[in-house]
Amino acid sequence: MLATVIDGCEAVEELVLLIEQNSANIGSALRKTLNKELKDACKHFAKGKCKEGVKELVKFQDKVRQYDTYYQKPSKKKPSAKNSIDHETAMLLIDGAQAVIDAFADCPCMEK
Fold it and tell me: pTM value?
């Protein structure tokens, strides 16, 4: 049995791919914002600062939730399509980020 081991930055790049694959469900402005959050996380993981990388992923999850159409409060003003994400795609991204966060839970680098 073969196991593929990837580092934190490679795992984050998988989230970037998820954004690309679901771009029709994510507003253009929001895609840029989310990709920036992931790029910041990747930089931290690449430098061995996984605690900071995990913090960036939590911020990423919060940002996704903020623009998830499921959680947006109804108002007279319709939310901008440039800054929204459909609920199914949001859950894919949140769960993907959580898998990376969970993978680092017991890592000694989290204590640095």
Answer: 0.86
